[in-house]
Design a protein that fits this description.
This protein has 203 residues and is of the alpha+beta class. It folds into two domains: 72 residues, no CATH class; 104 residues, Trna Endonuclease, Chain: A, domain 1 (3-Layer(aba) Sandwich). Helices cover 38% and strands 17% of the residues. It has a four-stranded mixed β-sheet. Helix 4 packs across helix 7. About 11% of the residues have low confidence.
Length: 203
């Protein structure tokens, strides 16, 4: 198992069992918790997330995952990422990334990209493009001095290099040859590195 996969497993375990002690206990005890589940819920059965619908925290709070006992792991607890991972584990496929999380991260990324605009680089939000018979909305389009476009979207840490936009996932890979996906956690935890990733792809 690679270091990235192990980190994702640790985050998922911390999300599923936020009051457990740090380290390998996350994986062992989370595994026992899952093994006690009475049955696999149906796709429309959301009792496993009851109580989360009314929360408005961006990653986690004391109403959902945080407690005094897991305070050293607060920066790792992310209920929205954890929910996507659990949905994938339960139902397969690509569960939608939360729209509010996507929009706030894209706004954060675009806001910093705007500071780098010059005659060598420009960026615009929510641009409509036609791909074959389908009209799609590209979250961010950047252009270099030659006018070449790079389409920019987020990717979830659960599925690196896979656009969170359903429009972009639906079109052929050849149509999105200039697509650059930026990890949502990179945007939130190291914005300068995320911006540099985009600039390296565009310039």
């Amino acid at each position: 198992m690679g270091s990235r996969s192990r980190k994702l497993l640790d985050v998922a375990a911390a999300t599923a069992a936020p009051r457990l002690r740090a380290g390998s206990a996350h994986r062992r005890q989370a595994g026992r918790h899952v093994s006690r589940a009475p049955r696999r819920p149906s796709r429309g059965h959301d009792s496993w997330r009851t109580g989360w619908q009314d929360l408005n925290c961006d990653t986690s709070c004391y109403r959902c995952l945080r407690s005094y006992r897991n305070k050293i792991e607060h920066r790792l607890l992310d209920r929205k990422l954890g929910e996507q991972l659990l949905r994938h584990a339960l139902f397969g496929g690509y569960p939608d990334y939360p729209a509010d999380r996507t929009e706030s991260s894209l706004a954060l990324l675009y806001g910093d990209l705007a500071r780098h605009m010059s005659d060598q680089f420009s960026a615009v939000r929510n641009v409509r493009r036609r791909v074959g018979t389908r009209e799609i909305v590209v979250p961010i389009i950047s252009r270099n001095s030659n006018g070449a476009e790079t389409w920019i979207d987020l990717s979830s840490p659960v599925a690196p290099d896979v656009a969170v936009s359903a429009d972009l996932r639906a079109v052929s890979s050849s149509a999105t040859a200039r697509l650059q996906c930026v990890d949502d956690l990179l945007v939130r935890r190291n914005l300068p590195a995320a911006v540099q990733q985009v600039l390296d792809a565009v310039l």
